[in-house]
Amino acid sequence: MGKFKKLGIILTSTAFSVGVLSPMAQASTNVKEPQERVAIQVASTETKVTKSMLIKQLNTLFPDKFKFVTEKDFSMGEAHYFNDDKTIRYNLSFHKTINGKDVYGDFTFKGEDLELEYFDYQPANIAEALYPVKYSESEAKKIAQNFLKKLPNTANYKLREDNWYGDFGFSFSRPLSEPITYSFAYSPTHNGVPLSNENLNITVLANGEVTSMYRHTESTSKATFDNLDQKKNESDILAQVRENLSVDLRFMIDTNYQTGESIAKLVYMPPTSFTGVHALNGQWHTMNGFTSQVPTAKGVEKLASQPLEPRKKDITLAEVEELAKSFLKIDSDKVKLQIESVDERENENGETIYSVNYMYELGNGSGYGTSFEVNKATGEITDYWDIRRDFMETDQKVEPIAKDAALAKAIDYLKAWAPSYLHNYSKPIEETMYDKDSKRYYFSFPRIVNGIAVLGDEISVGISADGKLSSLNISNHKIDNWPAVNKAIPADKAKETFNKGLKLELQYAKQDGEDNHHYDLVYSPVYNGSIFNGIDATTGKWIQNVDDAKEKPVISHPKAGGELTYLLHQNVLEVKDPANFNADAAVNKGEALKILVKSLSYGYYDFGPYGRGDEKQSFNNIDKKHPLYGIVEQAVSMGIIKPADQFAVDKELTRQELAEWLVRVLNLEKAAKHSDIYKLNFADAGSIDKAYTGYIALVSAMGLIDGQQNKFNATGKVTYADLAISTVRLAKAVYEENDGRHYYY
């Protein structure tokens, strides 16, 4: 391949992410969580592809679309390939400002044919992609399909209509000043059967623009496939799965990412010991291949029967620095370890954590840096990823140690670096994954509460082929109340529900291995329309109900029905019973502020009780325990409201107060305060408080708040319908301003 250098990790492991989906992902057929993917730069002398060639290919795929971009505007990145895919990639990008709007495009082509693998494009004008939209989802689907036809080698691609990847109801609001987008996933097929773990995703703006595409597919030119005619009857395999179906009782961590609060739910899960059945021979498919024996889950076996002493109680800053030097040391004269800083922070459990930022400096002036974390109270390592292998030469031919030996190594490392946690965690009860690309074992040690494993809380440990510790992450949510196990419905009843909701999906699955080009035909279980699904053990209902997701509720109202429904679907408006919702009811200040803040932000507010650590209490009556604390403090930081003695959460919001809030959002308060320069044309102008004259004049002129029968009615109540209309109009005004101030995380 010639000269090269590593650019660094492009996609880090998700095997250690803290979340509900990680354990459940093991239940999917061939859903392999991505491990580290390292981009390796190719020297310019090693390729003959030029910028002009890439531009020509781009214009072939997108005739006339990018005529406004000159060759000088384009930049060509370094060619590269990946550690798990030797096909060379080429990057082309541009960035321009047109009529005050940022326009950019980023494109990746791969291989000798310069196949478009990825692109992301932001057009100049997206106003028509804001509510109300120009194109519906069904119309956007046709646009995506037409675009797909323009791409080579996609004739056999099929739209995924199912809820294959599921989201467990995670709901994040997004700024309504961002464009509405539609995403469509396609899978390549062979003889009409989809290839698992391969997909092509297309995103279409609601104004009809195709703005992104990512293709994660492999060449099948050398591939062989099981004969579809030889598959067993689906009914026979379904009977086999049902006969061996078991259900597991688990706790599941559910985190509200707007408040940071976590609660535990009691759930029944389908078996994760197998992920499907071979369609030809009936063997069970597991994460590590096929077996004729029915896979069974292991029982709970705690890592320690009694609590162990912490590694180092109340470790000091100086001691952490010494720990870092010893733990991170490297046996090389060409690499120097540099401890950049040690920071303190409070995590979501209220624990003080040291974050050690460090770098390995290479002799050529470059370096690799990251951080690891230490619990101050125990001196134990809670988060670590070894980056040394990213720049140190390793023996690729080394045979990995056996799985049992790797497990023993992992437990020894935990006893050395995090002993006080072990009595709350079990040895792996699910199949252990071995990644052949990175030559690493990934062990998941589940947290155990009242004898039951916890989904979303585990200790994840990576062990390299030579037995060294490659990663460690401890997830341990602070939960005050765990559901009583005796409240769960009987396991037989849950099993009956699973059996009723069980269907099989036929797909081709390729096993791990560099020289393996064969696709096996596999029947994969799908539960109530989703591969990731479970049952609430206290109610007996599915965690995900695909039919409910398809039938979104609608709020009826003569003036604001569309706006109210839009806010509801965007998770900005919270309504328990949409059919009987009274949109003409007055909205109080607390609820109005919540709607406004959520409409302008991404729905995550990093405030208390264990947030950023620098929180202030802006109102005496809104402390960290108040349910609106995060919303109120976010609103203060955005300038919508100002700190005072009290915030009247339950008081009805008036129209003049709403006018003041909207003007502050748009950063026009200085202009609004010059009340003498404004003349109000409302019939009740004489009764309006002069302090609000400028605010009312501005929102009226901008069309953010409508008058009522030639009156503004400044002290009148704001209804949910009024607020919905103003909120949607405000979003478009914020987009027109386009200075980025209003996107808050």
Describe the structure in brief.
The chain has 15 helices and 29 strands. The protein is an alpha+beta fold and 745 residues long. Among the domains are: 50-221, no CATH class; 317-474, no CATH class; 550-737, no CATH class.
Please give a structural write-up.
Residues 615-676 form the SLH domain. Keywords: Signal. Residues 1-27 form the signal peptide. InterPro entries: SLH_dom, YcdB/YcdC_rep_domain. This is S-layer homology domain-containing protein. By secondary structure, the protein is α+β, with helices and mostly antiparallel strands. Among the domains are: 50-221, no CATH class; 317-474, no CATH class; 550-737, no CATH class. Helices cover 21% and strands 27% of the residues. The chain has 15 helices and 29 strands. The strands form three sheets. Strands 1, 2, 3, 4, 5, 6, 7, 8, 9, 10, 11 and 12 form a twelve-stranded antiparallel beta sheet that branches. Helix 9 (561-569) crosses helix 15 (720-737). It is globular, with a radius of gyration of 29 Å. The protein starts with a strand and ends in an 8-residue tail after the last helix. The relative contact order is 0.11. Mean pLDDT is 86; it is low at 1-36, 163-171, 606-614 and 739-745.
Mean pLDDT: 86
Structural class: alpha+beta
* Alpha-carbon distance between the two ends: 43 Å
Number of strands: 29
Oligomer: single chain
**What is the percent of helical residues?**
10-25%
- Radius of gyration from the alpha-carbon trace, in angstroms: 29 Å
Q: How many individual helices?
A: 15
Low-confidence stretches: 1-36, 163-171, 606-614, 739-745
Biggest sheet overview: 12 strands, antiparallel
Shape: globular
Beta content: 25-35%
